Each structure stands twice: as C-alpha cells, then as structure tokens.
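Response to reviewer comment R2.3. The reviewers asked that we include at least one raw input/output pair. We reproduce the pair for ABC transporter substrate-binding protein here without editing.
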Amino acid sequence: MKLKPFNTMATAAVAMSLMLAGCSAGSSEKEKEEGKSSSPVTVKPTDYTFDTASNMFAYAEFELSGEPLVEGLGLDLDILDPKKVDQPAKFDYTAGIEAYEYSEEAMYEVVEKSGLGLHLLNGPVIQKAAKEEGKKPEEVLGERFYKLADSVGYPKEEIFSNMYPTMIEYAYGDPHYSQKVETGEYAPGEDGAYVPEYQVNFESLRWDRSRMEKLLTPAAYGGTFLKQALWAGDFMGGFHTVDKDEELAGETPKDDDDKNIRLGVSSADGMQGVILTEEIWNKLNYVHDSLFYQSAKGELGKAGLGSEYDPSKGFVYLPHATEVTEGGSEAAPNAESLNVTDKSSKLNDQWMMLWPSAEFFGMTDQRADNKNTPPSFRALFDGEPFAAAPKENTDNDPANDVVSDDAFSVNRDVMLHTFKNLDAMHFNNDEGTFVTEHDGKTQGTKVDAFEAGYTIESLRIFQRAIDGLPVGYASGEAAKGLETAEGKRALELIRKQADFMMNEMINDSGLVTESYTIGKGKEGNETLKAQLGAIRGLNAAFLATEDEKYRDAARKLYAAMDEKLWDKKAHAYETAKGEMKYDPATAGAVAAVYRVALNNLSNSSGDDAVKALDKETIVNRYTDFFDTVIDGPGLDEGMQTSEFWDTGDFYKKGDKSENTDGDNVPQIQAGHGKYGISPVLVPVEVKKK
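Raw output as returned:
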C-alpha cells in the first residue's frame, strides 16, 4: 500500500533553514582553532546496533541538559544560533545547540522516519475511528493529521511527506540508511546554501526492516515515550497567534476560541507536538489493551482500572520482552501475533515506563482539584483535538472511576499499574531497597546502584505528577501539592532507597559499589555508571524531601567520582578501572549529573567549597566530555554518528566536504556506511594514544 503523502514542511521551518544556512563555519579554521587533529585519544565505535532504550534515555537527559539548563542559568535563548559556533560561550553552544538538537532530531528519526516499529495506522484509536466511521484507516489517519494541523494553525499542504509515524517502537535496529539519501535541493538559500529534499520528504530515510529486532520491551517503548512526552510538553506548553506566530503563555483553557490564537508555542512546534501526542495516545492504548501480562492466566491481556488494581490478588504487569510477528503491508506493518519471550519484570523496564507516564500525566491532568495544570494543556484535552476524560475520572473519588480510552484515563491506568508493581514486585520492604528483577512469582535479591538511583528519580517525577505539581522542564519548581496517598508512598520509597544506598552501598573509597546482593552484601566494581545513578538518585531524594543529608551525600560522591575516575589526559571518565567504554545510557547519565551538579550540588554559601563542584569546573567537564566522547576527535569517531542543519551542518552547492560546519560530526549521508547513518548514539571505546 502506498501511503497518502503528507506534503512538505512548515514555511517557518524552511525560512529558518534558509536564514541560518547562509554563514556556516569553515572547517579548516575550526579544526585549527580547536586542535582536533592533535587529540590525545581515539574514540572508535564498537557496535552499530541501535539500542532504542539506551538512546532514547540518553537523549532525554541531553534534552534536559540542553536549553532548559542554560536558560535556567540565565542565558537568553534567542542569542543561540547554530551558525555561530561556540557563541556566546562554548558551554552555551554545547548545551543549548548540540545536546538539545541532537536530542530532538534523534527522536524524529525513531518516531517519524526510520520505520522502527509498528505504524500508527494500526493504533487502537485510529482503528476504532475507522470502524466507527466506516472508513479505511489510512483515510482516517490523513484526516486526523489535517485536524491536528488546524488545531495548531499549520498549513495542511505543508505537512512532511512520506512520514512513518510509529505507534510503538522496537527494541533494536540498524541505524544505517538502506538507500541513497535524497540530498538534492528542495529550496534555495543564500550564498549557495539550500534545504535538502530529505528534510521535507522522509522516504529515503528508512532503515532496513530485515535488520530490526522486532521485540517490544518496556524500556524501549517507554524510553521513546519519555522523549515524546518531554518534547510534547515543551511544544504544547503555550498558545501562539496565527497572524504573527508569536508565543503566548495563555490565561484560560478557552484562549484558542479566538480565531487568531492556536495551540502550541508556535505553528511548526505545535504540529510536532500534536503528532507526538497522537502517537503517545495510540501507544498507551496498545500497551493498556495488549501488553500487560496476567500472571494468574499466564498470558497477555488488558490492564484494568489503575485505582482498583491490587497486586496481592495477582500481578498484572509489563513483561520484559514480547516478540512481534508482523502482518499487513510492508509500508505500514501491524502485529499479527505477540509472543512473550521473557515474562520477568525488570526494574529498568518499570522505571522507564513510570517516568514518562508521570510526565504525560502532568500534561493530561484534568482533575478538578489540580490548579497547577497550564491552560494550554487543558485546552489540548478539552475534546478538540484530543478527547476529554470522563467526569468520573477527574473528580476526587477513585471509587467511581471508569475505563476510558482518552489520553488521561488510559495513561493513569498504565501509570498506576506500573507504580504499584514497582512497589509490590521490586521493593524489598525488610531491606528498604529495590531489586532488579521479579520472575512473576519470586522477588530477586540483586540491587543495582544505577537502576536504584534512577528509580528514585522516576518516583520523584511520579510523586510530583500524582500530587499535581509541575513536571517536564518545571520539575524543580515548588508548588502546593494534593498530598495523595500514592504521593506519600512514593516519598516513603524514595527515603528508604536513598538511605539504603548511603548506608549499605558506599565503600571506604567514597565511591558506590555497582551492586549489592541481599544476604551477601556489596558486590561488583566501582563503575562510572554506578556513581552516576547514585548521584542522580541522591539528588532526587534531596529535591523530593528537602533533606540536606541527601545533597551532602551526593556532593561527596560527585567529588569522589571526579577525583578517582576523571582521566586528565583523555578528558573523560574511566567507566571501570583501566578502561573507558561508553554506551549511550552512560553518556546520558553523565550529561544528567553535570546538570544536577550545576543546579543543585555546586558550591554555595554555607558549603565547604569543593573544587570539583565549582561551577566553572563543572562547565569545563561538560564541554570536555562532549568534545571528546560525544563529538569525538574525527569524522569517523565519537558517539554522535551524524548531524544536519539544526547543529550547524548546512548543505551548500559545490561543497564536497559533507561537513560544512567543520566539526567532527559528518552529515547524515556521509558517515559510517554506504548510504550514511542516522544522527544517533553508538557505543565507543576511548583509548589514549
């Protein structure tokens, strides 16, 4: 089946491309300035398998460590410009342009371009509408995109063509392009620059379906959900005017009744925001209806009402791995059958679903008691363009809740199942800690520092969401909460896990051990990943409880990590003793820890000053890390495999460099393969020369 083409891109986005493309940096000048050719290390990729969970997690942390970080530190975002490399300062550019835009573009590769998953045509909401309206799903989806475009004031004729919107994403794939990328001119710019065809027509950006591992894991579709929820929240966190496309904060949920006011912070961002929301809505319904394992029956089935779910009466949970046998057309495959290949519950899967569902809960929250939901979010889910929740589900009485497929209700049910399962299946009440695995009948005994630390962070976001506090980019802001029973239990779990980490997992060296087995004690090495997870968790415990002992512990651990693991010659951390092997999850956690260090742990009045926690030192570590590990010292090195105009690599007539900004990241058609490679992260090993 040939999909109905959605034509071109936003006029505003094209105009921005052309405006920026006129003056990119010359390669020779930048290379001389940064001295890349004399790097003391090599940073070679070790595997080109795309790990969806690891990449999407990393890019979520890059996003939060990008524009929101530098803006919070006082930067005017309007002065950031991809063509002005390292301006107004190297850190500002690295965080606000590179980290942030790498994050956004990688998400689009997965959910709009690659084909890494099941097509949105097969989404439960689309299929239901097709059945009710007596239409073909592709007709319903096309009309749906047009309706979404109207809601944000986006020209229908300017929607990207040959998109592959995903309903749910697979765990692994090969990010190399499977055909020649269409880099020919779509629209001209200044000084020979132009917008390439592939930026408006995604047909040449597909990955090889035969090289995809057609496996559904909660960490993979949950990690993508996290990226979608964070960006959707950003894009839909305001209104804009139609005539001037100017952002408005919004005063009431009825602001868009004015014909000159539409949803979204701009027309182009709004279009992406509603597409992401549509994908999330369908994915959640699919997860809710098809992917919960019923332990009593030994088979996949539906989740019920989250408010009524009682794990003591039989676990209903998300299993680690479900294999998909595809059916339908090659252009828009569906799941012909599902087979659970690993029924265990993994802690990593569960917190990777709790975090995004909590973020999305904050966006969809229509509870009458919550006064903190922004007006633009209320307007988004008032019936147009997205269904409103039934009144029974938004009052303060859980006893009258009803099953509904609207975004708020279905997400609430998935979120509460996940939270209750984290508590019942993974939390050891006697020891006060989370274990990594539950086989469906018996709880395991291993504690992992990274997983436990990030479980604390996920619980922090959940507590804020369920108690009606701001999440997303505003997840550090104070507000009056609803003090729900679930929120109180989340805080209790946070305290107990943080205390266990402080009391049982820190060695005499001041570093955390990577694991602990109940009944045996500390095990494993003092890996970088363990330190990062523990710092992230202790910082989250401090933010959630305001107890300074957790901040003190996080500061001490950060200082020990910086002293013992930072390699001054390589400008990178050792990931384990004597080696520097980075995977995307580790890289994402490094960016996250620099963010929390700058925001919460850095030296302030009343602290005993620690050099590692001087803001200048942290900033230098951030830029060194991105230069060395992420961008790498050469075009065939570094974790970030490719890039395009969002981070300064513009297309220019007659330019054969395939790297017009002169950095160490090639254009997408040029790097790491016959037809190039998507702008994603791959594992690398850093070796000193």
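Confidence is low (pLDDT under 50) at residues 1-36. The first helix runs from residue 11 to 21. Further pairs are available on request from the corresponding author.
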